[in-house]
Amino acid sequence: MTADRSVLVASDLDRTLIYSTAALALGMPDPQAPRLLCVEVHESKPLSYLTEDAAAQLRELAAETVFVPTTTRTRKQYQRIRLLGDTTPAYAICANGGHLLVDGVTDLDWHDGVRRRVADACAPLAEIRAYFTATTDLSWVRKHRVAEDLFAYLVIERERMPRDWLERFTEWAGERGWTVSLQGRKVYAVPKPLTKSAAVREVARRTGATLTLAAGDSLLDADLLLAADRGWRPGHGELADTAWTAPHVEALTERGVAAGEEIVRRFRATAAAHTAPRINAPRINGEPAALPDPA
Hints:
CATH topology of the largest domain: Rossmann fold
Helix content: 25-40%
Order of helices and strands: EEHEEHEHEEEHHEEHEEHEHEHEHEE
Radius of gyration: 20 Å
Shape: globular
CATH superfamily of the largest domain: HAD superfamily/HAD-like
Number of strands: 17
Largest sheet: 5 strands, parallel
Distance between the termini: 37 Å
């Protein structure tokens, strides 16, 4: 089946569609546990999973719509994932919008434009890294990381993190044009102009999509959900913990890997409802016929 270019589906990956071993515990009790498919292996170790049913539904979704994996992962981290087997999505968004991949290759014009916008609006990355160095210690921070020379994050022992550190850092970074997000064991600092939504809008422009659907679980997904025509968030994650909502965003009750499966179902059902009237509408000489106004 050829993808319907009128529907664009942009979904976050980690803890939205795919789940690490630790994140699987958010899901259903063991007696009800579904069969899982591993979609990411690194250094011979399985890392990420989704249910077998979600994997089958996702392949159908990719055939029916313009499916765009949309992640904060770096390109290297993203390319470890095999969501669609050996098939490479026509578009993917990495580094929270810093890289737009077209058939797996970075669009350099897009990337250069992002870097200019960040440089014009935000304090430099070096200043953020200096704050990390000055205010954290090895008792609760396991790693300092820089992603694609665009943003920084910490891998932490969450239960040991000083209670007020995140609040202080969020305020300090916000004054300098940066967004802070706590996701599992990672604290991200991302320039405010570096957004998933901007990259998704660009894909919609290129494909001519008239309906955009989205899903995500973290603060870094909020702009993506707000930019979509319809969105879903799982019953876990940063957005659920803060009761974040919007009129066109549905908060699911499902958690963990079960939420990922339900999100794919919602994507497919909504896309089908959008395309069905155009497919089934009466046509005259190959063009849609005007329908009478309802009585």
